[in-house]
Amino acid sequence: MNKAKFVYVTYIRSTPEKVWDALINPEVTRQYWNHHNASDWKPGSAWEHQRFDAAKTADIAGKVIEVSAPKRLVISWASPNSLNDPAKTSRVTFDIERSDEDVRLTVTHDELEPESDMLRGISGGWPLVLSSLKTLLETGKAIDVTKHKR
Amino acid sequence: MARLTTESTIYITYIATTPEKCWEAITTAAFTKLYFFGHTVESDWKAGGDIIYRTPDGKVDVQGRILECDPPHFVRFTWRVDWIAELRHPPDSIVSYRIERAGDGVVRFTMTEEHPEPIDARLLEGGRSGWPLILSGLKSVLETGKMFKADPPSPPKAMQDYIKELQK
Fold first, then answer.
1. Is B140 in Cβ contact with A127 (below 8 Å)?
2. Min CA distance, A44 vs chain B (Å)?
């Protein structure tokens, strides 16, 4: 079966270390992504994209596949109720490269089910989340992602 | 064998600004030179008029014609790359910028590069490597007020191969 892929590139006036921290530090993801990204970030470990409620409800979950700080992070990505369904599990690769005075962050979300709600959701979601991340790192204040239509 | 395509390239970014300021940033030379590799834009921003992007030394880099213009929300124009002689002949692309209010103090900016006539797929690589850099710069200039200095990326390998083929 053909799988779909979504790629987004953004240039951020920052350092690879700060961009890396912004991907794995729940206190930072909270500011621009409105969720905690929780894990010990070791290959094979679980990771969860959690709300702030008492139950820490996960909206997305998966496994950590590859960790090469501060350059490359690969994780699997699924709705918590499809965690054991390979057909509904996709993969996200974050590549962080220094580019002149900037950092080029490339997010490649592949192994996606074509025409799925997940594909539609992430296609609208990544531009907003990564715009918010760039704003946070460059100005110190993120875009409030909860208030904007996609 | 060359693969032909009519695929569009789309880039969306959210910017903490107003539609009016975002429009000013894409339509005035004083702004474009802060983020568009130092290029200046010239146009009267009316349908039927010309649009030109010039390099800092005054050479024409891109030229086209305005097809639709609805300030401060939408402009669509033909796009012909002029700086590489071999690229002046393929069918024109069409570029549009759409600015929508996406919430309080935030706009959603959408750049679409369309190819109504089939072109060699390798040509798409130029836009795919250039637009994220240009539009990351647009966002930074509007949000931080600082110039976003970046060198234009050299044409990607696939595009260079295509240009070499045309030169044979």
1. no
2. 32
